[in-house]
Amino acid sequence: MQLRIGYRNYDVIDTPELDLADRGHSAEIHFRDGLILVSPEGPKAHRVEKILHEVMHGFLYDAGINLEDDMEETVVLALTPRFTAFLRDNPIQVRKFIKDLQ
Ligand SMILES: [Zn+2]
């Protein structure tokens, strides 16, 4: 899977090693390499939210917004579940938005 964030594409790669407890997280974004690594474990909806979490980091990076790590994580943790729910809760309107943006 490939996602476009701003001016660049990111390859999304299932990475089982991210399930190791000592990593402390289950997805990563690598801006310079154009990679989003995500653990394939768990429900599909959880995987989507993990990817969208990294996409939010990508939005901030693309926008040139440099927050301290804790603040960036706070912002991303606040926005991601709400954006995910927005997509899930408004499927008809989201599809219309996408169509209207073509
Ligand atoms: Zn994060």
How is this structure best described in words?
The chain has helices at residues 44-63, 69-89, 91-101; strands at 2-5, 8-14, 27-30, 35-38. By secondary structure, the protein is α+β, with helices and mostly antiparallel strands. The protein has a single domain (2-101), classed as Arc Repressor Mutant, subunit A (Orthogonal Bundle), CATH 1.10.10. A four-stranded mixed sheet has the order 1-2-4-3, with helices on one face. The protein is globular and about 40 Å long.
Shape type: globular
Count of individual helical segments = 3
**What distance separates the N and C termini?**
20 Å
- Largest sheet at a glance? 4 strands, mixed
**Ligand names:** zinc ion
Number of domains: 1
Beta-sheet strand percentage? Answer: 15-25%
* Low-confidence blocks of residues: none
- The order of strands across the largest sheet is 1-2-4-3
- What structural category characterises the helix and strand content? alpha+beta
Short description:
The protein has helices spanning 44-63, 69-89, 91-101; strands spanning 2-5, 8-14, 27-30, 35-38.
